[in-house]
Design brief:
The protein has about 250 residues and is of the alpha+beta class. The protein is built from 5 helices and 12 strands. Strands 1, 2, 3, 4, 5, 6, 7, 8, 9, 10, 11 and 12 form a 12-stranded mixed sheet that branches. Strand 6 and strand 7 form a beta hairpin. The longest helix has 19 residues. It is globular, with a radius of gyration of 20 Å. The two termini are about 30 Å apart.
Length: about 250
């Protein structure tokens, strides 16, 4: 876990979540980042207390969940270490002051250099999906993002034809359930590895390239420190093989 920590102080901890681990889960025996961070902080506290030869019942560290990433998605998460910091960071999200950027590997027929997507989404809790609907539909919430294509590549298909894939840098302006996956797919730019929202071509290329996780990474996170007000910026390079290919 220590190698995944990008920054920590008494108020926050910023970590790099790998693909395949849930942000939080109630399933017994399944790893999640909230538990991993809690154990990491508890271990550090025990070491500090042992150096001071204190003999007392160890306390469970406070870990405030501020935002989430889907289990198959890699990226940066910030957790609060006290309730006041949690409230301030949550307010930044509500006010649109927390900046979130993603890399996504997409497949499509055409690749505009850039675009803005504004839709209305409704979440279906039973199927754990979201869909785009008219704004008049009850429960519909506005979803906004911008994207810019960074690189494109052609790949050969088993039938002898070629297909185009591209690396998109996405600025997420709202935080809806499965928002990037739904909006990009609806615009004809499905994410590789996304079998829930992708089309047949995307599924075929994902199988051919052995992409097991959704090709999406929360690569940059910006916010104001909840106590000092200092502007904090964190960036990572995606670990997935598809990202390495598209970043060459």
């Amino acid at each position: 876990m220590k190698s995944r920590v990008l920054y920590e102080d008494n108020n926050i901890i910023v970590v790099h979540k790998p693909a395949g681990i849930a942000t939080q889960t109630a399933r017994v025996g399944q790893r999640d980042m909230v538990s991993e961070v809690t154990r990491y902080l508890a271990c550090g506290r025990r070491e500090a207390e042992s150096r001071q030869t204190r003999q007392k019942e160890p306390e469970i560290p406070y870990v405030g969940l501020i935002h989430r990433l889907d289990q198959p998605v890699e990226g940066i998460l910030v957790f609060a270490r006290d309730k006041r910091s949690a409230a301030e960071l949550s307010k930044q999200i509500a006010d649109g002051r927390m900046e979130k950027y993603y890399y996504g590997a997409v497949c499509g027929q055409t690749f505009p250099d850039r675009g803005e997507l504004v839709d209305y989404l409704v979440r279906d809790g039973k199927s754990n999906t979201s869909r785009i609907v008219p704004k008049e539909i009850k429960g519909a919430k506005i979803a906004r993002l911008d994207y810019q294509m960074v690189n494109r590549k052609s790949i050969g298909l088993p039938n002898g034809e070629t297909a185009q894939i591209a690396l998109a840098r996405i600025h997420l302006r709202t935080g809806r359930h499965h928002q990037i996956r739904v909006q990009m797919s609806h615009s004809g730019l499905s994410l590789l590895g996304d079998y829930k929202y992708g089309d047949a071509l995307t599924a075929g290329i994902s199988e051919q390239m052995q992409i097991r996780e959704i090709a999406l990474c929360a690569c940059q996170l910006g916010f104001e420190h909840p106590r000092t007000g200092e502007k904090m910026q964190f960036q990572i390079t995606p670990e997935g093989r598809i990202f390495r290919l598209l970043m060459e």
